[in-house]
Automatic annotation (TrEMBL):
Organism: Ideonella azotifigens
Residue ranges crossing the lipid bilayer per the database entry: none
Protein name: D,D-heptose 1,7-bisphosphate phosphatase
Native organism taxonomy: Bacteria, Pseudomonadati, Pseudomonadota, Betaproteobacteria, Burkholderiales
Enzyme nomenclature, EC number: 3.1.3.-
Keyword Hydrolase in annotation: yes
Main location: cytoplasm
The family this protein is said to belong to: Belongs to the gmhB family.
Localization in the cell: Cytoplasm
Metal-binding in keyword set: yes
Keywords, ordered alphabetically: Carbohydrate metabolism, Cytoplasm, Hydrolase, Metal-binding
A Pfam family reported for this protein in Swiss-Prot or TrEMBL: Hydrolase_like
């Protein structure tokens, strides 16, 4: 079985400028790509799990989301940190786009994306790790049975004192990976 690191996207991989959907607005968090490469070198599969309710809300289309994802994946690849998969939840119960305006099992804090990734990529969840910037990320990891879950402060809730059920909190992905790999 393979161990993975599940990464939330907005606020962990890239700055959360709210409903980021244009490549021009996609600003990598400093050190995130290098941290991802170190995780890949340590034998972790890299999987992004991202809530994208902007699709249900009609702020951008799923096609725009996929176009941005393609460019993001290419950068990870070039940096020696290829992504095994990227899962997104396009839903929101209060959305305006009929096809996506519903309850679902994939929007975090629900565990659907993580469970699907584990099934499709034969991942061992107890041996895996999640890194997110919101408590809903941590809750999704817990609900899925992910072994460890870390909160990072590179998102928009940086001053939030509560770390919920996270195992620890770090400034950003780079510091989290420093601690994980004892570097
Ligand atoms: Mg986030
Ligand atoms: Zn969903």
């Amino acid at each position: 079985m393979t161990r993975a690191v599940f990464l939330d996207r907005d606020g962990v991989v890239n700055r959360d400028h709210a409903y980021v959907h244009r490549w021009e607005d996609f600003e990598f968090v400093p050190g995130a790509l290098d941290a991802a490469r170190r995780l890949a070198d340590a034998g972790f599969r890299l999987v992004i799990v991202t809530n994208q309710s902007g699709i249900a809300r009609g702020y951008y289309t799923e096609a725009q989301y996929f176009a941005l994802t393609e460019r993001m994946c290419a950068v990870f690849e070039r940096q020696g940190a290829p992504l095994a998969a990227v899962y997104h939840c396009p839903h929101h119960p209060a959305g305006s786009v009929v096809a996506f305006a519903r309850e679902c099992d994939c929007r975090k804090p629900r565990p659907g994306m993580i469970l699907r990734a584990a099934a499709e990529h034969l991942l061992s969840l107890p041996e895996s790790i999640l890194v997110g910037d919101k408590l809903s990320d941590i809750e999704a990891a817990r609900a899925a049975g992910v072994g460890r879950a870390y909160l990072v402060r590179s998102g928009n809730e940086a001053s939030m004192p509560d770390i919920g059920t996270a195992d620890a909190a770090y400034a950003d992905l780079a510091q989290c990976v420093d601690a994980l790999l004892h570097t």
